[in-house]
C-alpha cells in the first residue's frame, strides 16, 4: 500500500505548481501547449499589439477656398502698398486679414495656406516698391476693386 501514497505526492506537487503558475499569471494555454512551445518545439511568438489607427484625415477645403486665398493675397498686397503710400485706413489690412481668420476658423493646414497667400501678396510688392509711385497707387485701386468684388461674391454666395 505504499504505492498509492507515493503516487499522491507527485500529484500534490503538480497541483501546487499549477496553482502557483496560475497565480503569477502564466497563461493556461501556454501550460497546456507544453510550457510555451508550439507544435514545432519552438517558443510561441508573443502576441503583437494592433497598429495604432491612422490619424484622422483633414476635411476637404471649402468650395470657396480659391477665392479666400486670392482675397488673402490682395489683403497682403494692400497692407504693403498702403504702408508706402501712407493711406490712412481706420483698420489696417493686416487686421482685416486677422478678422478673416477669426471668422473663418480654418483648420491648421488651411490657415497656413491663407497666411502664406497674405505674405505672398505683401512680399511681391515689397520686392519691387520702395516708395509710392503712380503704378503703386494704380495697383491699390485695382486690388481694392477686386477685393470688394471677391468679398461681395463670398458674402452673397456662402454667408450663413
From TrEMBL:
Cite the record's Pro residues compositional bias ranges. Answer: 46-63
Q: Name one Pfam family in it.
A: DUF2385
Note down the stretches annotated as region Disordered.
37-63
Q: Which InterPro entries does the record associate with it?
A: CHP02301
Determine the domain of life of the protein's source.
Answer: Bacteria
Q: What is this protein called?
A: TIGR02301 family protein
To which species is this protein native? Answer: Faunimonas pinastri
Amino acid at each position: 500500500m505504499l504505492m498509492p501514497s507515493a503516487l499522491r505526492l507527485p500529484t500534490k506537487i503538480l497541483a501546487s505548481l499549477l496553482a502557483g503558475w496560475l497565480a503569477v499569471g502564466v497563461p493556461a494555454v501556454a501550460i497546456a501547449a507544453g510550457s510555451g512551445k508550439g507544435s514545432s518545439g519552438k517558443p510561441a511568438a508573443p502576441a503583437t499589439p494592433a497598429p495604432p489607427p491612422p490619424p484622422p484625415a483633414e476635411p476637404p477645403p471649402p468650395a470657396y477656398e480659391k477665392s479666400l486665398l486670392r482675397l488673402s493675397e490682395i489683403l497682403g498686397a494692400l497692407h504693403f502698398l498702403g504702408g508706402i503710400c501712407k493711406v490712412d485706413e481706420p483698420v489696417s489690412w493686416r487686421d482685416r486679414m486677422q478678422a478673416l481668420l477669426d471668422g473663418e476658423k480654418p483648420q491648421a493646414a488651411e490657415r497656413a495656406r491663407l497666411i502664406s497667400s497674405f505674405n505672398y501678396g505683401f512680399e511681391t510688392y515689397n520686392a519691387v516698391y520702395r516708395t509710392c509711385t503712380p503704378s503703386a497707387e494704380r495697383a491699390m485701386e485695382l486690388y481694392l476693386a477686386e477685393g470688394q468684388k471677391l468679398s461681395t461674391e463670398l458674402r452673397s454666395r456662402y454667408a450663413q
